Amino acid sequence: MKYFKVEFRISGPTELISVGRDLLAALAGEAGFESFEDSISLPPRGESEGATCGLCGYVQQSLFSDEALRQAVASLPLPGVSVDYEVTEADDRDWNEQWEQAGFDPIVLGGRLVIHDGRSAEALSTLEPRPPLQVEIDARQAFGTGNHATTRLMCSRLLDIGPQGKRVLDCGCGTGILSIVALKAGASHCLAYDIDQWSTDNALHNAIINGVNSRLDVRLADATLLSTLGDERFDILLANINRNILLADMEAMSRVMASGARLLLSGFYQADVPMLEERARQLQLSVVDSQSDGQWAQITLAAF
To answer: For labeling, which of 122, 250, 255, 294 is most exposed (least CB within 10 Å)?
Structure first.
């Protein structure tokens, strides 16, 4: 699978740079981009005041549209923030090495869960008390280490609900982090799917690392998979995907919800919540609660 590497230069007022970076990643995600990482290889252009940061995004060559990307950049809703970008072909070897060599500091969620990369023994040893639930993620070309606000929101809400003994569906699984958290917290079984072969391979790899692979079924698919499941139903459904995919796929997800099931959604901004809640009402789903982390939001739905 061939990818383009797009390096973005984001310039503007210092206080808007971080928000601009997150917004750009979300907009690019809607334009087909799958993964992002910080980049400092592009120097500031000119002598403009303010700050500059770099963001590197990856998109499948077959899905790339320069027009869609230009529209995404143009729609960035932050006055004074500008974006330049350069497109090159990603080298497969470099793409693999960047993900496999990049680590991350342990992420602790509410004293209940710590997510680490398997190379943080020293940092883990300083955690006192040690969270009872520990998940190791080796992120190979897939989204989901716990660093992003949406992943943290989903993990926290999942633990609030309590997956013990429940059947879980993970839509757009990425690294498999949500499936693995659910299984290590006691879920009986999890079906996970993603449209990207690298992601499904990585999810299975991480499941093996965490010793939960016997209860995880990972498939290369999109939401059309759900129409093939017959009478199979799930107690908890997880979907940390961009807004447009959620709007399109929510109906298929609702059809495989068991009685009393909960559907956890994230991957969107607070401004998108009314649109998603309206779609939920059209599908006879009720809003149980919502939460946010900065600009990002998460909502929990249930059948009426």
So the answer is: 122
Taking the alpha carbons at both ends of the chain, their separation in whole angstroms is: 42
Average pLDDT score over residue span 282-302 = 94
**199-202 contacts, C-beta under 8 A, 24 or more apart:** 199/34, 199/141, 199/142, 199/143, 199/173, 199/174, 199/175, 200/173, 201/140, 202/138, 202/139, 202/140, 202/141, 202/142, 202/174, 202/175, 202/176
Residues forming a β-bridge with 286: 302
Q: What is the pLDDT of residue 148?
A: 80
Give pLDDT tens digits for 31-90: 778 777 777 544 444 444 577 888 888 887 877 888 989 988 888 888 889 999 999 988
Q: Is 0.85 surpassed by the pTM of this model?
A: no
Domains assigned to the chain: 3-98 (3.30.70.600), 104-303 (3.40.50.150)
Whole-angstrom distance, CA of residue 263 vs CA of residue 283: 12
Residue 295 confidence (pLDDT): 81
Q: Compute CA distances 210 → 53, 171, 198, 216, whole Å.
A: 35, 20, 18, 11
Q: Any bridge partners for residue 69, and if so which? A: none
- Tens digit of pLDDT for each residue in 79-132? 889 999 999 988 765 444 554 555 667 788 888 998 888 776 566 767 777 788
Nearest to 271, CA basis, from 291, 237, 299, 296:
296
> At 97, is the secondary structure helix, strand, or coil?
helix
Is the CB of residue 261 less than 8 Å from the CB of residue 239?
no
